[in-house]
Amino acid sequence: MEFDLVDLIRRHTAQQRDDVLLGIGDDAAVLSVPAGQALVMAVDTLVEGVHFPAGTAAADIGWKALAVNLSDLAAMGASPAWALLTLTLPDADPGFVAGFADGFAALARLYRLALVGGDTTRGPLCISVAVHGFVPPGQALVRAGGLAGDVLLVTGTPGDAAAGLHALQNPARDADPQHRRWHEWVIGRLHRPTPRLAAGIALRGVASACIDISDGLLADLGHICRASGVGAEIEAMRLPRSSALRGLHDDATALRFALGGGDDYELCFSVPPSRLAEVQAALAQIGCSATCIGRLVEGSEVRVRGEDGASLTIDHHGWEHFA
Ligand code: ADP
Ligand code: MG
User: Fold this and answer.
1) How many Å apart are CA 313 and CA 259, to the nearest integer?
2) Which mean pLDDT values do the consecutive 10-residue runs of the chain (323 residues) have?
3) Looking at the domain covering 151-305, what would its CATH class be?
4) What is the CATH number of domain 2-135?
5) CATH topology of 2-135 equal to that of 151-305?
6) Rounded Cα gap, residues 259 and 161, in angstroms
7) Whose CA is nearest to atom 12 of ligand 1?
8) Which of 15, 121, 164, 276 has the highest Cβ tally under 10 A?
9) Is the CB of 167 under 6 A from ligand 1?
10) Vertex 22, ends 18 and 24: CA angle to 5°?
11) Where are the domains of the chain?
12) From the CA of 88, which ligand is nearest?
């Protein structure tokens, strides 16, 4: 069974690269790291029922399993090259594997990423992808370089993936076509996130700190703050919200999704004010929207300020003023 499935994966994901000296089929892959580049590696696992709902389309799972990993490379400013794939499957279902491989390959092709090996075992559905990329030595984007006074930006429109999950869990009862389109769009943002690879590369040597948003903007910004030894202030009114998010949810819910929702895979990063214009021009050139949402400050707290300047705090029921 295993050989047939591996052959199926190989055929569905074929991608030529000169630096793959030996790909799928031997005991291990043999790869040529370009001279003068640092190798960047990351691995992430998706478990059915934990990282995606049971019943998610195979092609969406394949896309997302790669996307979450490419997002980690994006957050480092790396350009992707190779991947390894460990598939744990409840049964040898060629239909599922072909669909999965097609979704994986659709994203891999965009970046000329080659799948060079992996492992296939039987068990509860679980997918682990390891990715490898390159960055010029010394130019990787890290979490630890942020300074008080740096401007804080975010790509895209965070909160959409949380709205997508909400839409899946609360299927639309009305037949309003606009609502249906918004629902489909936010569900697409959940299942097929766009890793911000071009943005990460454009930020090399300019961003003082960078992270990708997998657990929610506040949680991930907290990682930058801890690593950099700074606090942060976000102005709630500046948070970019998609028209779908605004159309489907009231302000408080949209804000809760944008700040607390996971799975967006946008980049959150800081830049010195003196380089803001340069960064915005570089991102505009690659067609990536990026919005200033606040700044890094002295201290260690992450604060969100509302329209009236007062701090907001999150609880499980929504947002409340406390001061
Ligand atoms: P071994 O017993 O040597 O680990 P495997 O049967 O696990 O051999 O793998 C055979 C070949 O198929 C290897 O080159 C391996 O990298 C590749 N392979 C196995 N599973 C996958 C997978 N899910 N995706 C890509 N390549 C795979
Ligand atoms: Mg093996």
Assistant:
1) 11
2) 83 93 96 97 96 94 98 98 97 96 98 97 97 97 97 98 94 82 96 97 97 96 97 96 97 94 96 97 97 98 89 56 39
3) alpha beta
4) 3.30.1330.10
5) no
6) 12
7) 25
8) 164
9) no
10) 115
11) 2-135, 151-305
12) 1
